[in-house]
Design a protein that fits this description.
Shape: elongated
Distance between the termini: 63 Å
Helix content: 25-40%
Structural class: alpha/beta
Oligomer: single chain
CATH architecture of the largest domain: Alpha-Beta Complex
CATH topology of the largest domain: 2-enoyl-CoA Hydratase, Chain A, domain 1
């Protein structure tokens, strides 16, 4: 028979473990505007669904007096629960215990829950708040990071992996979030960098604070490391929950469907007049996206990074889709290094997890100049080309206006196994725009008659526009499946997706690909 004192000890031990580093450190966490690990999990998971593992694990280090500092759980809370009734596996680092620093036993706890997620075929969510490797453990702590990274790699493309950065994440610790599918940061309280401000100053002489070096705003807008930058932790948790609603549990399933009362056949007359008369005038692609998706609800990814291209999730007839669209209102929608890798990463995620792709094209080309060439625009542009060509999920493409040169090819054209390719009557599909083409094709003729140069230019430009400033040449050759009225875009895209729902694609057997990194 279990003795009463044994039960009382268990209850006391559990209560102590839930206190982490103790009330004083919990209060210090709150004073910084941060929640504790358990408070974050409580917000994330459905009430009463959390099943905790390894609550009583303690570190085994005896160096530098660590044998006198023991806490149950050793700085990370791990387990499983549900979000909107769907299973997820989680770990949340506890900054109140040794600053959340990673020990060998902490890494073992994290690896255990990652292995369980992979076996169960469920998303794995890591909430990071750690000062880095536990210095007292030396190489053991580094080995622990290596074990985590290997599991990130093995899980990639099999189960969704999401990282929430809710405090410091520095040194080798940043590589686990970088290996996951989506990274969220919180403004003013989280940061990520390989080397801190003090080291940067000593090595380069540059004076910079933590926020400037690796804050949420920096990584969301400049580096692209963060997909989301939340105003506070509660918004961050809600963002993760919403993200989960668009994606499947694993690579063998499809994303959950969401009932919608938005009619499949809904038309929008405003789309018939959204393209400006001037080909050089901008318009807002967000208006097109919201017009064609269910209830106008679009969940954008990487909102503040490479704004010349838009990526995100939506539902069409209740089914989750990934949307990729050029944004004419930013840099004319041109493709550059950052836009190419942003879109390529998103396309590959959608392909790995069976999410159909809807591509809206209005692209004048690739950004030119020495900065882009020296930065390897060729290689980075090839990433997007490779991602689309490799993808086997249903791919529906609509060219709204410009589709010029290599950029036309890259944006899911028919030759990259685009399944259904539509065009609006305003589409212009050609090697280049009219001005550039005339200057190349008729340079000698124009130069030979300077008195009538302007007249010749305008005449030849008109001829070129009549030939290529419409989608009929592409349609005549079968490169465009149909030219559609803009107001009917929602219906035509949904019908195409429904027809492609049972799509099967054969690819050559290989160990793995070798995309241009």
């Amino acid at each position: 028979m279990i003795q009463t004192e044994q039960i009382e000890k268990l209850v006391e031990r559990r209560a102590s473990a839930r206190q982490g580093g103790g009330p004083a450190r919990i209060q210090a966490q709150h004073d910084k505007g941060k929640l504790t690990a358990r408070e974050r999990l409580e917000l994330l998971l459905d009430p009463g669904s959390f099943e905790e593992y390894d609550m009583f694990v303690q570190h085994r280090c005896t160096n530098f007096g660590m044998d006198k500092q023991h806490y149950d759980g050793d700085g990370v809370v791990t387990g499983c629960g549900t979000v909107d009734g769907r299973p997820v596996y989680v770990f949340a680092q506890d900054f109140t215990v040794s600053g959340g620093s990673l020990s060998k036993t902490m890494s073992e706890k994290i690896c255990k829950v990652m292995d369980m997620a992979l076996r169960a075929g469920a998303p794995c969510i890591g909430l990071n708040d750690s000062g880095g490797a536990r210095i007292q453990e030396g190489i053991d702590a580094l080995a622990g990071y290596g074990e985590i990274f290997e599991r990130n790699i093995l899980s990639s493309g099999v189960i969704p992996q999401i990282s929430g950065i809710f405090g410091p994440c520095a040194g080798g610790a940043v590589y686990s979030p970088a290996l996951t599918d989506f990274t969220l940061m919180v403004k003013n309280t989280s940061y990520m960098f390989l080397t801190g401000p003090a080291v940067v100053k000593s090595v380069t002489g540059e004076v910079v604070d933590q926020e400037q070096l690796g804050g949420a705003s920096v990584h969301a807008s400049k580096s692209g490391v963060a997909h989301f930058a939340a105003q506070d932790e509660k918004e961050g948790i809600e963002t993760i929950k919403k993200l989960l609603s668009y994606i499947p549990q694993n690579n063998m399933e499809t994303a959950p469907e969401r009932p919608s009362s938005d009619p499949v056949g809904r038309v929008d007359d405003a789309l018939n007049s959204i393209i400006p008369d001037s080909p050089n005038k901008a318009y807002d692609m967000y208006a097109v996206i919201r017009s064609i998706v269910d209830d106008g609800d679009f969940f954008e990814i990487h909102k503040d990074f490479a704004k010349n291209i838009i990526v995100g999730f939506a539902h069409m007839n209740g089914r989750s889709v990934g949307v990729v669209a050029n944004q004419p209102a930013v840099l004319a929608g041109v493709l550059d290094i950052n836009a190419s890798r942003k879109a390529a990463r998103f396309v590959r995620f959608c392909d790995a997890f069976n999410i159909p792709l809807v591509t809206l094209v209005d692209v004048p080309g690739f950004l030119c100049g020495t900065q882009q060439e020296y930065g390897a625009i060729i290689t980075n542009g090839a990433k997007l080309l490779y991602a689309y060509g490799e993808a086997t999920v249903p791919k529906v493409t609509v060219t709204l206006r410009k589709g010029y040169g290599g950029a036309h090819i890259v944006m899911s054209c028919k030759q990259l196994r685009g399944d259904v390719n539509y065009a609006w009557p305003s589409a212009q599909i050609a090697v280049m725009g009219a001005d550039g083409a005339v200057n190349v094709l008729y340079a000698k003729e124009i130069k030979a008659d300077p008195e009538h140069a302007k007249e010749i230019f305008e005449q030849k430009k008109q001829e070129y526009e009549e030939l290529f400033s419409n989608p009929y040449q592409a349609a005549m050759k079968g490169y465009i499946d149909d030219i559609i009225e803009p107001r009917n875009t929602r219906f035509r895209v949904i019908r195409a997706l429904e027809q492609l729902a049972s799509k099967r694609a054969d690819v050559p057997a290989k160990k793995h690909d070798n995309l241009p990194l």
